[in-house]
UniProtKB/TrEMBL annotation:
Domain Glycosyl transferase CAP10: 332-626
Taxon lineage: Eukaryota, Fungi, Dikarya, Ascomycota, Pezizomycotina
Organism: Lasiosphaeria miniovina
SMART domains for this protein: CAP10
Entries under Pfam families matching the protein: Glyco_transf_90 (PF05686)
Chain spans, region Disordered: 46-66
Superkingdom as given in the UniProt entry: Eukaryota
Protein name: Glycosyl transferase CAP10 domain-containing protein
Length: 646
């Protein structure tokens, strides 16, 4: 008999979600077993945009259209909750493509409509650069820039310039040349990236964050005031002929004459732990994060929120990926993420100043650049030699290898770390132990924690789920990253009892598997771009924001996973099947193909250059004393340029 998804009760489809939570909770209490986890596991401007189509055909070319065979929605039936998410993603992506700008005039009109200001000086050169590199130009793709820079419009330009010039690690751009005195490898990589576009850049100083962890968390109330003040500067002057179109020039680095009104300030750097106590101030009053009692003891079973009650979930699966990365409504994550417990290093400030970095949490106020690891293109993070490995030759399995990072794990806190939890949940032996409820203490705690208002879930018969997980999960640590010294290489005296150390699997070899789960380490995962550019399917769980987020669509280009991993089994059940339910291999293949096709179009090094050029033109304007009268208005001025003095 052929089983069809519609013949399986909805309760059966969601059983694995309940079991996943049970296994996660079992993990925290799992201290009496010697089992080692190893393998197995502006309406005016809108009208103007329509009127000005094709007036400036710089680099004009055919509109980007995805290949028809990468439409996974065409293969869905609507019988499973994931089907609806895939169909919605297809519509979202199609809507994005309808907003492509195919000319300079269209790009400028789209800018004014979305930003409420004139484009910055240099906008024509930016568009020409983008067009010459065959970029897909959709104004939404640069939203992160404006989320990052908008608060700075509330700070005096002189203050911003002084803060950047005083910072210990920085890149200076003068007369079209970028330089630095820092030898730190991240700075050198960022310098290389900026030097590739330096001839298009005005003078500026960029303060750089050398740490894995983001550093600025302005209190929500203060950020609200910054944004209100910044909003007062947002305008589109009708007198376009008086617009200033030339950036200021700055003295050579170290020769600046300090503004007597802008004194150097000694920023206060906090080292508070848990880091949760620092970051939750970035959440709104009344939010779950602000109201929840802080956890101080991580050597116990935490509370895990039901995946069916969270705002970013629908029927147990991530429906709003952006919201899933925001912990403000997810107070339980304070005990489920090493970053929120004890990062490798903590050095945070509540003061707003222009600091650039490679990733950040939703509440951080750092300014995002493409991470150095993406620009460097190291083979161990790209695996491009095998990126085109054929789908039909891949293993019907998931692979993950990594170090037990996520922060500074100790004997008292390691159970709160996401990578340890994920590896444990992907081990069939442990799943079987949880199913059979061999530990009385863990059974009672798990049963209480998995209660859910949507109904009781009858678990599968004992010993069935564990072997199923073992059949497809090839997951394990390559180094236990012990918090204590004196250990054998890769081993740890307090976690070695539970986790085995497995041989590493390079990226090229990982691409011979169909499914690539991606979990945060000390910060963002540096493999994500490589995963997206492969023919395998990334399954992504993260709390970190990156430069490219607004150009990717969850369930169209990758599969999102909740940071509790309660949906991990159900996701794999949907794609692989489990003996009762049919799998959706063709759907997985098409999402993987769509992700690769799109990543090869919008996550290239050229796209990083285009992003950084737009970012730094905007940054140069916000630190210029004449910023409110600056703008590119050539498309609005007939026969004349906006005038200004350098």
């Amino acid at each position: 008999m052929i089983l069809r998804p519609s013949s399986i009760p909805q309760r059966r489809r969601l059983q694995y979600l309940a079991v996943a939570v049970l296994v996660a909770l079992f993990f925290w209490c799992w201290t009496g077993s010697d089992t080692v986890v190893g393998p197995g596991g502006a309406a005016k401007w809108s009208a103007q945009r329509k009127q000005q189509q094709h007036q400036h055909p710089i680099g004009k070319g055919p509109q980007y259209q995805p290949l028809s065979q990468t439409n996974a929605a065409a293969l869905t039936t609507g019988d499973h909750p994931i089907d609806a998410l895939i169909q919605a993603a297809e519509k979202e992506f199609s809507a994005k493509l309808q907003e492509q700008s195919l000319s300079l005039a269209e790009a400028a009109a789209a800018y004014r409509e979305r930003r409420g200001r004139h484009p910055p000086p240099g906008f024509r050169q930016w568009y020409e650069f983008a067009a010459a590199h065959k970029a897909v130009v959709v104004e939404e793709f640069w939203d992160q820039i404006y989320a990052d820079l908008e608060p700075l419009w509330s700070v005096r330009p002189g203050r911003l310039r002084r803060d950047a010039a005083d910072f210990e690690m920085r890149i200076a751009v003068r007369a079209g040349k970028a330089s630095t005195t820092s030898e730190w490898f991240w700075t050198q990589i960022w310098l290389s990236m900026i030097q590739s576009i330096e001839h298009l850049l005005p003078d500026m100083d960029l303060a750089l964050n050398a740490m894995d962890e983001p550093r600025i968390v302005v209190p929500w109330e203060k950020m609200r005031d910054h944004m209100a003040q910044a909003a007062k500067t947002k305008k589109l002057p009708d007198d376009v002929e008086s617009a200033v179109s030339v950036f200021q020039r700055l003295p050579p680095p170290g020769q600046e004459q300090p503004d007597p009104n802008e004194k150097s300030r000694d920023l206060k750097w906090e080292v508070t732990k848990p880091y949760w106590l620092v970051v939750r101030r970035g959440c709104a009053p009344g939010s779950a994060a602000r109201d929840a009692k802080p956890i101080t003891d991580f050597d116990r079973t935490p509370q895990i929120a039901s995946p069916f009650s969270l705002a970013h979930m629908r029927h147990g699966f991530v429906a709003n990926y952006t919201l899933s990365t925001d912990f403000c409504h997810q107070a339980d994550l304070q005990g489920l993420s090493g970053m929120l417990v004890e990062p490798i290093s903590v050095s945070a400030t509540a003061e707003l100043f222009p600091l650039f970095g490679g990733s950040k949490l939703a509440v951080n106020n750092d300014i995002l650049l493409p991470a150095p690891i993406y620009w460097s293109g190291e083979e161990r993070f790209t695996g491009q030699d095998a990126a085109d490995f054929p789908w039909d030759k891949k293993r019907d399995a998931a692979v993950w290898r990594g170090v037990a990072t996520g922060g500074r794990n100790t004997e008292q806190n390691w159970r709160a770390f996401q990578r340890h939890r994920f590896v444990a949940m992907s081990n069939g032996t442990l799943v079987t132990l949880a199913e059979e409820k061999k530990e009385t203490k863990s059974s009672s705690q798990a049963s209480g924690a998995t209660a859910d208002s949507s109904g009781n879930f009858a678990l599968p018969p004992a010993a069935q789920l564990g072997p199923w997980v073992s059949s497809w999960a090839d997951v394990g640590f390559t180094d236990l990253m012990c918090g204590y010294g004196g250990q054998e290489l890769g081993q740890c005296n307090y976690t070695g009892r539970y986790f085995g150390v497995m041989p590493s699997v390079d990226m090229a070899q990982q691409f011979t598997y169909k499914y690539l789960p991606d979990v945060d380490g000390n910060s963002f995962s540096g493999r994500y771009r490589g995963f997206l550019r492969s023919t395998s399917l990334p399954v992504k769980a993260t709390l970190f924001r990156e430069w490219h987020d607004s150009r990717l669509v969850a369930w169209k280009h990758f599969v999102p996973m909740d940071n509790r991993f309660g949906d991990w089994y159900a996701i794999m059940e949907y794609f692989l099947g489990d003996g009762e339910l049919l799998g959706h291999d063709a759907v997985a293949q098409r999402i993987a193909a769509a992700g690769k096709e799109w990543a090869d179009r919008v996550l290239r090094k050229e796209d990083m250059q285009i992003y950084v050029l737009r970012l730094l033109l905007e940054y140069a304007r916000v630190v210029d004393e004449r910023r409110e009268s600056m703008g590119w208005v050539d498309d609005l001025v007939s026969g004349a340029r906006g005038r200004g003095k350098a």
